Amino acid sequence: MAGATVPLSLSHFSQYEIQSLFRCLTYQLIFSMSDTNPESRTSIQVIERMMRLLDALAAHTDPVSLKELSHSTSLHPSTAHRILNDMVTCRLVDRSDPGTYRLGMRLLELGNLVKARLSVREAAMPPMRELHRQTGQTVNLSVRQGDEIVYIERAYSERSGMQVVRAIGGRAPLHLTSVGKLFLAADESSRVRAYATRTGLSGHTQNSITDIGKLERELSFVRSQACARDNEELELGVRCIAAGIYDDTGRLVAGLSLSAPADRLQDSWLNQLSGTALEISRSLGYRPEASADSQQR
After folding, report:
1. Radius of gyration (Cα) for the chain, nearest Å?
2. DSSP label at 6?
3. Candidate CATH numbers 3.40.50.300, 2.60.120.620, 1.10.3470.10, 1.10.10.10; the one for domain 15-103
4. Each residue of 199-252: pLDDT tens digit?
5. Which of 52, 46, 45, 56 minimizes the C-alpha distance to 100?
6. How distant, in Å, are the alpha carbons of 47, 102, 121, 137 from that of 86?
7. pLDDT of 26 over the 80 cut
8. Is the entire prediction scored with pTM above 0.70?
9. CA-to-CA dists, residue 95 to 89, 133, 239, angstroms
10. What is the C-alpha separation between 111 and 220, in angstroms, rounded?
């Protein structure tokens, strides 16, 4: 089974969709800035020039020369060149042959993330609310981004009896969370070891797994059980269980977790959690029997 890395394909998004995505992200940044601050106004001017260049690139399927970009955006060649170089560094723009540019793969990566999260959110919310109604506990929807998970949705109420520490948009290390362990378990051993080297497996509590050998044993258990647990490894007093959400290709795209006070988490909730995760996966086109067949080939 593949991990969380999203396969990039130009067929996934049209040039217009890529352009629209970046425009949406950029305008959100622009409006978050104060227009009373001179530095903010300068930043907005740079972003607006970036958008003009991206608009010009989006209008062409082939690489575009600096001269043509300068002409179509009314930017001085030196200004256009400087901004394009910055965007090349960020992989928002690719430099093809010397002096020609096209939209970069980073836009596809961002677009794939947004596309996956929006569809998962839409499919997940009604079942998440129902699971919360049944258990009375906090239900979280998370995705992987690099070496962390990101909480993108939550079903929660005061009766959950637990203060929510990680807000929507919050992040946490993979090896300290139940959902993060699902994603690590979907990775090859070499990738898990590379993760351990990058992060140092730092801990947050005395229960945190900070040893690669122990982590590998934990991930082996996760694979055998098709679920994962967080035993007060991220926050003392909070335990979690998680099940994976898969798309129509059998790829792990998100994790559904149930969080509860450590003395209240019930093992009987695991069946309900797994059933809810499967319901969401099926709505995304996942077929367990097809996934099993492909793994046996």
Report:
1. 22
2. P
3. 1.10.10.10
4. 999 999 999 999 999 999 999 999 999 999 999 999 999 999 999 999 988 999
5. 56
6. 11, 14, 33, 46
7. no
8. no
9. 10, 52, 48
10. 32
